[in-house]
Write a structure and sequence with these properties.
Distance between the termini: 43 Å
Helix content: over 70%
Shape: globular
Structural class: mainly alpha
Number of helices: 9
Mean pLDDT: 86
Amino acid sequence: MSVARALSPESVTELTRALDLSGVFANGTLGGVLARARRLDLFGFLVIGIVSGLGGGILRDTLLQHGTPVALTDYTYLTVATAGTLLAFVADLSRHTSGWAFNLLDAAALSVWAVAGAQKTLAVGLGWLPAVLLGTITAVGGGAIRDLLLGRTPSIFGGTPLYATVAIVVSAVMVLCSRLGAPAVGVLAGITVGVSLRLAAFTWGWKLPGSRDWRPGPSRNRDP
């Protein structure tokens, strides 16, 4: 593929859709893992997995007001979310949730959706701030709704390694590169930065301050 072809609007649009679908699959799988931990039945798996996989994108498309959310018009999205959920239903992936593979999946899903959300926002003509906001909402929205359905405190509210912060950084990288005329570079750079930052947060327990008595220094209560 030539450089001109790689940087063309059509190529970026195709790449954005592929990233969107990969995020749908990954988050559907993550939702299924959490459903298994709660010992839900098949219907419960499907509800949690599909909400996890499609929720952020539906929120983004609704806020964009640029037609019906793509998850409701392109059946590939529902199919991919269901496939990810069923993978977690058939295969017990919960034993791997503390391993590097699960953390990598989580980091990749967060990053690709932030990139896709920011790119879609820019594509409809909105500015840099809406792109960062909607990129973040795309990345964390489905997970927040899923957590509320499961009676958990959403990860975006803290208590976990950097999560929404990573989505903000990734969206900003995508916006900056697009402003510089290199959206394809923004996709690769955003995902690379997001995955690296999220994995570093897992490894070293990086979190935002959580109270007034917070003091700089190593966290004493890091996640295992």
